[in-house]
Design goal:
The complex is a heterodimer of chains A (252) and B (161). Chain A is α+β, with helices and mostly antiparallel strands and 252 residues long. Helix content of chain A is 34%, strand content 25%. In chain A, strands 5-4-7-8-1-2-3-6 form an 8-stranded antiparallel beta sheet, covered by helices on one side. The chains are: A alpha+beta (252), B mainly alpha (161). At the A-B interface, helix 1, helix 2, helix 4, helix 5 and helix 6 of A face helix 1, helix 2, helix 4, helix 5 and helix 6 of B.
């Protein structure tokens, strides 16, 4: 028997039935009705695949607003790590075009075939991409005998920089310990520290910090494990990396 | 590239949450997926697969790697974590995205009652209480919502109907 919408409207419980959302009394009553009603059986047959599909629905999660900027930064790290020549800071869209445009041309071709936009195909959209104003990027590697890795970007914000740090596989902290980020000047060395504290965090993950340090001078980022109340940099340097694309490289 | 990212960011992120059960790890997966996309873009052959398929194949592989990382291990034993069914094939992944997008295309009143039943396991009277609606309204919204969902899935070419 075909699905009869008028009959179905008289029995709206059919939807609750297929979703398993009827209250026990209603479920019992509808089940008794269903056994003898071909119209409702037809509606159940129509609705059940919809109910089954809902069980596989992807979560309703929305990506964080800054994910795009961090993804762009992650690709920048990859390019730097691959030893590709860097473009001058402040020319992000040109950099973006050079590094992504040619490489993605087959993808753009397919995207165009899928009627994304003709503009994407010719690369115009590449320039429209809001590449972040990354002032400096860091790839932090472990000191001898240490483990872990991290990447970071510094972006110009009012009065300083916003630092986005992503740390992986850092060693387990002891009780009362935390990781601390530092910016080291050119003459900083054991016994003669030239350091600016940049913020603390615990564990692995992505963290946002702010600093007013001059990253063109304090080019080296260090991560140490510290204890509360120790004062200054007391722990060994676990990770270290030098700023790339800092402001003082702008002229090339 | 802007179009590619905008088009797939949300889908990839949701896939990450579904696969990894954690927003932070999903975040990590999306970033690494685009890094690998850049690294392997030269291998992409539009004759063999669509951009969407290529991206999900990469994302699935990245998700597997992210899950293996020491920093990604859950605090609870795996058997104690209530994870939803995991899509394995690219087709299943795409289906799960289509269903979510179809659900989001419904009117909010319809989508809300369906989501409360499906995601939270509430009965109709519990939904009525939660939303401050008469029980009859919940019943009719659920009915019309399922009908609209059927149409929305069909419009998106969902083939399990």
């Amino acid at each position: 028997m075909p699905y009869d919408v008028n009959h179905a409207l008289e029995h709206p419980d059919v939807a609750g039935w297929v979703l398993g959302a009827l209250d026990p009394v209603d479920a019992q009553a509808f089940e008794a009705h269903l056994g003898s009603c071909e119209a409702c059986q037809a509606t159940v047959a129509e609705f059940e695949p919809v109910a089954r599909s809902l069980r596989i629905a992807a979560p309703a999660a929305a990506p964080p607003a800054d994910l795009q900027a961090r993804t762009v930064a992650a690709v920048q790290y990859a390019i730097m790590a691959a030893g590709r020549p860097e473009q001058a800071q402040g020319k992000a869209s040109r950099w973006w075009h050079l590094h992504w445009g040619n490489r993605f041309m087959p993808l753009f071709t397919a995207a165009a075939a899928a009627a994304v936009t003709a503009a994407a195909f010719v690369g115009v959209q590449i320039f429209a991409f809001a590449a972040p104003a990354v002032a400096a990027s860091y790839v932090l590697t472990p000191s001898p005998g240490q483990v872990g890795s991290a990447t970071a970007t510094a972006r110009d914000v009012a009065g300083g920089y916003e630092i986005q740090l992503t740390a992986k596989d850092l060693p387990k902290l002891g009780r009362g310990e935390f990781f601390e980020c530092w910016y080291a000047g050119p003459d900083s060395r054991p016994g003669h520290p030239d350091l600016i504290a940049g913020g603390t965090f615990s564990g692995n993950g992505t963290f946002t910090m702010w600093t007013a340090a001059d990253l063109g001078s304090f080019r080296v980022m260090e991560i140490t494990a510290e204890r509360a109340g120790a004062g200054g940099q007391q722990g060994q340097v676990i990770l270290r990396g030098t700023a790339q694309n800092a402001h003082d490289d702008d002229d090339d | 590239m802007a179009e590619l990212y905008r088009r797939y960011e949300r889908r990839l992120y949701r896939f990450g949450v579904q696969r990894l059960g954690n927003n932070g790890l999903a975040d990590e997966m999306v970033q690494e997926t685009f890094v690998r996309l850049w690294r392997t873009a030269g291998n992409f052959d539009p004759e063999k697969a669509s951009v969407q398929t290529y991206l999900y194949v990469i994302a699935r592989s990245v998700a597997a790697d992210v899950r293996k990382r020491p920093s990604s291990r859950p605090l609870l034993p795996v058997e104690d974590v209530d994870m939803p069914p995991q899509p394995d094939t690219v087709d299943q992944i795409i289906d799960s995205m289509i269903v979510r997008e179809a659900l989001e295309s419904l009117g909010s009143g319809h989508a809300q009652v369906i989501q409360l039943a499906q995601d939270e396991g509430l009965t109709q009277s519990q939904i009525a209480e939660r939303l401050g609606l008469p029980l009859g309204t919940v019943k009719t919204r659920m009915f019309h919502g399922i009908r609209a969902m059927r149409v929305a899935l069909a419009e998106r070419g969902f083939n399990a109907l």
